[in-house]
Write a structure and sequence with these properties.
The complex is a heterodimer of chains A (about 350) and B (about 325). With about 350 residues, chain A is an alpha/beta fold. Helices cover about 45% and strands about 10% of the residues of chain A. Chain A has 13 helices and seven strands. In chain A, the strands form two sheets. In chain A, strands 1-2-3-7-6 form a five-stranded parallel beta sheet, with helices on both faces. Chain A has a two-stranded antiparallel ribbon with strand order 4-5. Chain B has about 325 residues and is of the alpha/beta class. Chain B is about 35% helix and about 20% strand. The longest helix of chain B has 15 residues, at about 15-30. Chain B is globular, with a radius of gyration of 19 Å. The chains are: A alpha/beta (about 350), B alpha/beta (about 325). Chains A and B meet through helix 5 and helix 6 of A and helix 3, helix 4 and helix 5 of B.
């Protein structure tokens, strides 16, 4: 991990003076633990048939939560499909997230005031949008910053290059966070690119680049916070490479044993982010088994309430398929609407 | 004389289509501070066809500017601007260079309203020069309207004259949905028309009867309207009155105007310069079959580009793009049926 920002060792020891006080560390731990619980419970729901195909983020909580914590409420988050942890940290209600992964239209409209764009499925296509939103802020005199995620595989896409270049030319207030989790479904990063140090690309675009231990919440939060500050100060975009690992399958439909040694994934559990921060907090006397139990109980109750709320959403009507195609439905949508309604 | 449906003010000028487009962009920038105009070479140079000539000097480099040479980037960046409250008007120099952006078009431009259930919308305009007839180099003469029309959620507008172009472009910029605005290169400077100086808007989603007749309906858009009107002039000298329906907006399609005309004439020929198979003419023909079959006295015919890439071969290019003679041959066949 040479040249990689890290504050906390894999076994939870501070390696330098931490840039955050205890209250912030506890806030960070709570947000990560909340995400972990969401992920675990979402898998359970999926197996019960109460959620659709779900992309797990186990092991990437620090990369996502740390980055999202660096944002203010007026800032935008542009997530990929794997970034539910970041989205719920930036204010997306749990019930909305569940409905989204249930493929229920009620989950496709994120609430007003939550600046999270919809989860993006086509790889890297969100990155030019992030640049546009960032530039719109400047044109409108709004001091917002845009945080956009992409994976290691996504950096192979043309849109990743086009967006980085646009952002650099326009000096747009965007922070690109690449979660380098080692895998694009079955393809390892070494097969995706010759130079697997993705942050090395930043100088090529003439922008700041930082490589950070993506399983160290303290490091990710601090690095992205600085990048956000620079963007807001008009100093342009940053490419952050958060080095992490996809501990879980690509989605609930994937079987990673077909393409990777699952013993390796087991080995990587050692460096996972939630236990690491917990160890740090425990060593400082700021955490305990009792506090953990109380937190988990509270988070379970929150999640259960969200499930109940999601379950209460009325079933979508067939005609909702052709609603919201245009501001005003055209004759073709109207005809389809009537047909779907059985009218 | 000004185009039908266009109010005539005292201060009309005779403009080419590219001048009318320039005026529309100028007025949109002046009227709505959310409007920004960008693309390759649109700023300092004023566009490869001069559609944005003088706009950067007048409105500033913050609102009229050049971008890197990347069509997917341009369209994707426009999506971001639009969903964050701006009214972006992007230029892609040639419609044949739009293909790198088709991922953005199919994945996002037409889908954003739908996939956020109206929470976010992308009221953007993408202008692109399309079509042949002016001996452009290879891959500069494509007509990709059918590719765009197949993406639900986008609108496709193809103006056929200076005065129509101005009103349609101003309406497209105001429209709450994303609009692809295809400008026939052949028409940019081929003629002048009285264009009122004040801003005006022509409704999208409305076809117009460009010429009335009773013998047969020619359905066309963009650069083919001029060709069909020429064919109708020739036919009129032989005592045959052809009706010319200019779609103007392909999506949403004004089916009723087409069907009303075909029910009156009993015959239809659809004319476009894109390749025949899977071209938008097939959609028009299907709609006529669905809505006016029992009024038809002859099969619906299509006059289109051949099923080959547009040929950049200067001496034979004119065999690809339909002309009045080819339209009239199809008309004669339909009238003999």
């Amino acid at each position: 991990m040479e040249g990689t920002v890290r504050y906390v060792s894999e076994d939870g020891r501070p390696l330098a003076e931490l840039p955050f006080g205890e209250a912030e560390l506890l806030r960070g731990y709570r947000a990560m633990r909340r995400a972990r619980l969401f992920d675990e419970r979402a898998v359970t729901l999926q197996r019960q048939g109460r959620l659709g195909v779900y992309p797990l983020f186990r092991g990437q909580e620090a990369a996502q939560v740390g980055a999202a914590l660096a944002l203010g409420p007026s800032d935008w988050l542009v997530p990929t499909y794997r970034d539910t942890a970041a989205a719920i940290t930036h204010g997306l209600p749990l019930a909305t997230a569940l409905l989204y992964w249930r493929a229920h239209p009620a989950g496709w409209s994120f609430p007003e005031g939550v600046r999270v764009l919809p989860f993006y499925v086509p790889i890297a296509t969100q990155l030019p949008h992030a640049v546009g939103v960032a530039h719109a802020g400047r044109l409108r005199g709004e001091p917002w910053v845009v945080l956009a995620f992409v994976g290691d595989g996504g950096t192979s896409e043309g849109d990743a290059h086009e967006a980085l270049n646009f952002a650099s030319v326009f000096s747009a207030p965007v922070v690109f966070v690449v979660q380098n989790n080692g895998w694009a479904i079955s393809v390892p990063t070494e097969r995706q690119m010759r130079n697997t140090r993705i942050a090395d690309r930043a100088p090529g675009y003439g922008i700041a680049g930082v490589r950070v231990d993506g399983n160290d919440l303290v490091a990710v939060w601090d690095v992205v916070r600085q990048a956000v500050d620079r963007a807001r100060a008009g100093e342009g975009p940053t490419l952050v490479e958060a080095v992490t690992y996809r501990l879980a399958p690509h989605t609930t439909s994937d079987d990673p044993s077909r393409y990777r040694d699952e013993a390796e994934a087991g080995e990587r559990e050692r460096a996972e982010p939630v236990a690491r921060l917990r160890a740090l907090l425990e060593a400082r006397g700021a955490w305990s088994e009792e506090r953990e139990e109380a937190l988990v109980e509270e988070l379970r109750a929150e999640f259960d309430a969200a499930v109940a709320e999601a379950d209460a959403a009325p079933e979508p009507t067939p005609e909702s398929i052709v609603e919201q195609v245009y501001a005003e439905p055209g004759p073709d949508q109207r005809r389809a609407w009537e047909a779907l309604r059985g009218g | 004389m000004a185009a039908e449906g266009v109010a005539t003010g005292a201060a009309t000028a005779h403009l080419t289509m590219v001048q009318a487009i320039n005026q529309a962009l100028d007025q949109a920038l002046a009227q709505d501070e959310r409007v920004v105009v960008f693309g390759e070479d649109v700023g300092v140079m004023g566009g490869v066809f001069r559609a944005t000539d003088g706009l950067q000097a007048k409105h500033g480099a913050e609102r009229v500017y050049d971008t890197p040479l990347a069509e997917s980037g341009i369209v994707g960046y426009a999506v971001g601007l639009a969903l964050a409250g701006m009214r972006p008007v992007a230029e892609v120099q040639f419609a044949g260079f739009l293909y790198p952006a088709l991922d953005q078009v199919l994945s996002h431009v037409g889908r954003y309203r739908h996939r956020t259930r109206g929470r976010y919308t992308v009221p953007l305009v993408v202008r692109a020069a399309y079509g042949g007839g002016v001996h452009t180099p290879e891959q500069h003469a494509d007509s990709p309207e059918a590719l765009l029309a197949h993406a639900p959620g986008v609108k496709v507008v193809v103006p056929s004259s200076p005065a129509r172009a101005k009103g349609l472009l101003l309406a497209a910029i105001d429209d709450p949905d994303p609009v692809f605005f295809l400008e026939a290169i052949k028409l940019y400077r081929s003629s002048r028309e009285a264009v009122p100086a004040e801003p005006y808007r022509l409704e999208l989603g409305r076809a117009r009867v460009a010429r009335e007749g009773d013998a047969l309906t020619l359905v066309c858009w963009g650069g083919m309207v001029e060709v069909c009107l020429q064919a109708a002039d020739v036919a009129a000298r032989e005592g045959v009155e052809l009706e010319v329906v200019d779609l103007e907006t392909l999506v949403p399609l004004d089916e009723e105007t087409v069907l009303a005309s075909v029910r009156k004439t009993g015959r239809a020929v659809v004319v476009h310069e894109a390749a025949r198979t899977g071209g938008f003419g097939a959609e028009v023909a299907a709609r006529i079959a669905e809505g006016a079959l029992f009024h038809l006295l002859a099969p619906v015919a299509r006059v289109a580009g051949w099923d080959a890439p547009y040929p950049p071969f200067t001496s034979v290019e004119h065999h690809y793009r339909p002309d009045a003679a080819r339209v009239l041959a199809a008309v004669r066949e339909a009238l003999l049926t």
